[in-house]
């Protein structure tokens, strides 16, 4: 059963149509790749999926509930974890603080947030020393791991990642992809947005976006 | 809770910017604290002084009212009716001691005393200290112009009347003042006058005991135990012998020693003090032996009796009592031609002029500082929010609601403002008193210079420097000498020159309100910007 369903989604920036009648389904425990050429609307679709942008028309169903009926902030902070292409971390905070803050925004209760955050960071192969470093002082790969840990911090069902390996070297790319695979194996729905064929090959399902008027 | 934690973390992580905001708020807070403290000090000084102000009032004839009444009766183009005025004035007699005493029974009167003053000549070598030279030298026989005794000058209206109804008479060389009791001898109570030799006459005595100024004693080589002969200036063969029981020095008399040219009896060096009863006895004896003559030219009658001028003073604990008394005496039957007046109130208001001026300036300064401060804070906050636009985008993209982001920003500003306000208020509390006193000193100096220039412009008030300095300090007990007001205008310069405390709970509360107000103003602008931001746009632009 689909955890996330797009039903005839259309999106346009003013007069410019970017997405038209997109209907995709995403299930838990699978890795999806949304591919397409530059300007095909991959990042826009990710924004729509994450609730950052409202579709011009069409519905998005999360666990069969229309997300229009769910508070968008709540949807972003609890049900979906987004890993942005440029990570979008709070640069003045440490890696640990970024993860803890994410849990606090999501309203996670009943656990020791700092301990849990540290475990998450360790699960993406960042040690305690690195965890207590300000994110500005971390490498691109390390920042990507922090962004993943942050996305996982409130245990969402869906993980969205925009070009997750775009800024990384080959070895790090593999490590990151292994983390996503492991997440899918644990039952998460992992949706990656990429134009890289190698990433598409790693995924269970590929959706290709085509540029409108192309 | 995490909003506060986050805010505190952000404050610590952006030290430079926050220190800058803190310094600006601190300067605003310190300035505001000084402004508020000055205003508070002025208010406190007024309240405290009013609370403890011992007010002395007199009942006097309201000449202005009578002139207005006569003036109102004339028709257009008609001159002021001098004859009617003289006639009315002639009919007016001063209140009797019994009347004065009747009004003293009013509940609000705390103390009551009275004096009688008359003018006498010296005899048998007892002569007045004269300040004149050559042919104008004052002697017992050549000072013809009747002068009001020194203590009546400056009094509103006609400060008292010779008892009897037939006016005229010669002015003597000495002013002899009879006091009802020691409470009436205010110069001694305030310490400006002291007995150097001997002692004061017994209170209420009918013996002709007197105390004389040291200058007069020196001038006539007199000492305690000696007797002097004084005569009625209208009737040279009417003589009285006074026994000197004490010699006194009056420091306030020295300050004005140059101002009595041509007024020998008004010179403090020629003032003889005795008991009211004793002087009344002399006046009564004079009345008994008086002869009346009629002027052939004018037809007016003149008597040889001594004119005794009665002055009574009522003392009140506070202004309310004084105001109540003014109403009470009317109910008790005081004629409408009389008025209750006190120079203490005017002196009190004058004493606060520099402080009130400073307070007013502080008020303007406060408004300007708060306006400028608010503008600076708004601008700084706009920069702050714009600089942290990306952070706002990330937080909202993570699912933090905009109002919570705004709340975090507001908390940051509030914490910085509060810390700066506390620091500003603390330092303000320490420096407010010396700063206020320093500013007040300038104000007093400016006000004194102004008053002095005015006085000089009118050809008055050439006083030695020492006198000026002393006059700027109010009496320690907050009271004003009732007779000081009669003796001249010096009390007009008795300004409040110092405040002891300026900061209090009210100022602290006002500071806190200012802090909150500044936070809200600055925070509202932040909130406006934050609510307008869309995370998608911010992050897309960043990408």
What's the number of domains of chain B?
A: 2
Uncertain spans of chain A: none
CATH superfamily of chain A: P-loop containing nucleotide triphosphate hydrolases
**Strand portion of chain A:** 25-35%
What would the average pLDDT of chain B be, to the nearest integer? 77
Please report the distance between the alpha carbons of the first and last residues of chain A: 33 Å
Distance between the termini of chain B: 31 Å
Query: Quick one: which chains have the greatest interface?
Result: A-B, 28 and 21 residues
Number of helical regions of chain B? 18
- For the largest sheet of chain B, list the strands in their spatial order: 2-3-8-5-7-6
Structural class assignment of chain B: alpha+beta
Helix amount of chain A: 25-40%
Choose one word for the global shape of chain A: globular
Low-pLDDT runs of chain B: 133-168, 256-262, 462-492
Task: Just name the CATH architecture of chain A.
Answer: 3-Layer(aba) Sandwich
Count helical runs of chain A: 8
Provide mean pLDDT of chain A, rounded.
Answer: 88
How would a crystallographer describe the biggest sheet of chain B? Answer: 6 strands, mixed, barrel
Q: Which fold does the CATH topology of chain A refer to?
A: Rossmann fold
Strand-residue fraction of chain B? 15-25%
Provide tags for this entry.
heterodimer; A: 214 residues; alpha/beta; Rossmann fold; five-stranded parallel β-sheet; 8 helices; B: 543 residues; alpha+beta; 2 domains; six-stranded mixed barrel; two-stranded antiparallel ribbon; 18 helices; elongated
What features would you describe in this structure?
The complex is a heterodimer of chains A (214) and B (543). In chain A, strand 5 (57-62) and strand 6 (65-66) form a beta hairpin. Chain A is globular. With 214 residues, chain A is of the alpha/beta class. The two termini of chain A are 33 Å apart. Chain A contains eight helices and ten strands. The mean pLDDT of chain A is 88. In chain A, helix 4 (113-123) crosses helix 6 (140-152). By secondary structure, chain B is of the alpha+beta class. Helices cover 51% and strands 15% of the residues of chain B. Chain B has 18 helices and twelve strands. In chain B, a hairpin with a 6-residue loop joins strand 9 (292-294) and strand 10 (301-303). Chain B is elongated, with a radius of gyration of 35 Å. At the A-B interface, helix 1, helix 2 and helix 3 of A face helix 1, helix 13 and helix 18 of B.
């Amino acid at each position: 059963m689909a955890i996330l369903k797009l039903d005839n989604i259309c999106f346009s920036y003013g007069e410019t149509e970017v997405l038209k009648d997109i209907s995709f389904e995403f299930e838990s425990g699978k890795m999806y790749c949304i591919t397409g050429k530059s300007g095909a609307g991959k990042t826009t679709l990710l924004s729509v999926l994450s609730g950052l942008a409202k579709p011009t028309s069409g519905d998005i169903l999360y666990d069969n509930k229309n997300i229009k009926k769910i508070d968008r902030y709540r949807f972003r902070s609890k049900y979906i974890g987004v890993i942005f292409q440029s990570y979008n971390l709070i640069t003045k905070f440490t890696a640990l603080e970024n993860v803890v803050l994410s849990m606090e925004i999501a309203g996670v209760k009943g656990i020791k947030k700092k301990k849990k955050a540290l475990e998450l960071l360790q699960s993406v192969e960042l040690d305690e020393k690195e965890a207590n470093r300000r994110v500005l002082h971390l490498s691109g790969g390390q920042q990507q791991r922090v962004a993943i840990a942050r996305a996982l911090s409130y245990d969402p069902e869906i993980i969205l990642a925009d070009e997750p390996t775009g800024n990384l070297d080959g070895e790090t790319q593999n490590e990151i992809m292994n983390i996503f695979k492991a997440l899918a194996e644990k039952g998460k729905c992992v949706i990656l947005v990429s134009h890289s064929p190698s990433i598409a090959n790693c995924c269970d399902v590929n959706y290709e976006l085509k540029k409108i008027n192309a | 809770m995490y909003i506060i934690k986050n805010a505190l973390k952000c404050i610590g992580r952006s030290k430079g910017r926050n220190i800058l905001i803190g310094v600006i708020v601190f300067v605003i807070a310190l300035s505001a604290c000084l402004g508020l403290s000055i205003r508070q000090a002025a208010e406190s000084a007024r309240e405290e002084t009013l609370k403890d102000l011992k007010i002395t009032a007199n009942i006097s004839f309201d000449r202005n009212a009578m002139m207005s009444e006569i003036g109102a009766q004339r028709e257009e183009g008609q001159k002021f009716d001098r004859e009617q005025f003289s006639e009315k004035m002639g009919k007016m007699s001063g209140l009797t001691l019994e009347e004065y005493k009747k009004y003293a029974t009013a509940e609000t009167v705390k103390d009551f005393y009275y004096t009688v003053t008359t003018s006498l000549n010296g005899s048998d070598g007892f002569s007045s200290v004269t300040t004149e030279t050559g042919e104008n030298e004052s002697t017992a026989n050549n000072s013809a112009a009747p002068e009001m005794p020194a203590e009546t000058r400056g009094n509103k209206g006609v400060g008292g009347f010779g008892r009897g109804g037939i006016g005229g008479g010669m002015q003597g060389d000495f002013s002899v003042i009879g006091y009802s009791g020691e409470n009436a001898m205010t110069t001694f109570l305030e310490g400006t006058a002291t007995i150097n030799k001997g002692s004061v006459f017994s209170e209420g005595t009918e013996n002709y005991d007197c105390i004389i100024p040291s200058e007069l004693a020196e001038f006539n080589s007199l000492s305690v135990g000696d007797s002097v002969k004084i005569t009625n200036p209208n009737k040279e063969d009417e003589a009285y012998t006074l026994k000197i029981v004490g010699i006194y020095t009056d420091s306030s008399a020295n300050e004005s020693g140059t101002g009595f040219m041509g007024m020998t009896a008004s010179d403090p060096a020629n003032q003889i003090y005795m008991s009211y009863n004793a002087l009344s006895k002399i006046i009564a004896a004079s009345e008994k032996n008086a002869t009346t003559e009629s002027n052939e030219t004018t037809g007016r009658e003149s008597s040889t009796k001594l004119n005794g001028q009665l002055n009574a003073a009522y003392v009140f604990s506070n202004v309310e009592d004084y105001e109540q008394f003014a109403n009470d005496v009317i109910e008790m039957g005081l004629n409408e031609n009389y008025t209750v007046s006190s120079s203490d109130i005017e002196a009190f208001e004058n004493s606060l002029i520099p402080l009130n001026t400073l307070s007013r300036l502080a008020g303007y300064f406060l408004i300007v500082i708060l306006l400028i401060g608010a503008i600076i804070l708004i601008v700084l906050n706009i920069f702050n929010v714009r600089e942290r636009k990306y952070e706002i985008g990330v937080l909202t993209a993570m699912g933090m609601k905009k109002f919570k982001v705004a709340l975090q920003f507001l908390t940051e500003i509030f914490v910085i403002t509060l810390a700066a306000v506390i620091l500003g208020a603390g330092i303000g509390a320490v420096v407010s008193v010396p700063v206020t006193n320093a500013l007040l000193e300038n104000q007093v100096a400016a006000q004194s210079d102004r008053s002095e220039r005015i006085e000089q412009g009118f050809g008055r008030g050439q006083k030695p420097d020492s006198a000026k300095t002393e006059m700027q300090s109010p009496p320690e007990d907050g009271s004003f000498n009732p007779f000081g007001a009669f003796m001249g205008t010096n009390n007009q310069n008795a300004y409040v020159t110092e405040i002891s405390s300026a900061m209090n709970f009210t100022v602290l509360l006002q500071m806190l309100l200012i802090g909150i107000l500044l936070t809200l103003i600055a925070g509202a602008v932040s909130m406006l910007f934050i609510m307008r931001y869309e995370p998608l746009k911010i992050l897309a632009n960043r990408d």
